[in-house]
Design brief:
Length: about 70
């Protein structure tokens, strides 16, 4: 989901992170060789682990948050 110059990447159980669109475009192109828009339509939640670990290794500014409207049962 696009949020200005940042991208919202959904993870698990309502968790998501916001990260730079430009940085994410470069990572997606290098790893998956596809445009960012195509990736966002088809990515697996485990891909978000890869993206998050790359952001942590490269000290990229990102924000982890939780969707308060997410319903978790269990």
């Amino acid at each position: 989901m696009y949020v200005g110059n940042t991208i919202k990447v959904n993870r698990f159980n309502g968790e998501y992170f916001l990260i730079s669109q430009k940085w994410l475009m470069e990572v997606v192109w290098k790893k998956y060789n596809m445009p960012l828009q195509d990736f966002l339509l088809s990515y697996d939640k485990s891909d978000s682990d890869y993206i998050l670990s790359m952001a942590e290794r490269q000290s990229i500014d990102f924000q982890v948050a939780y969707d308060e409207d997410y319903l978790y049962i269990g």
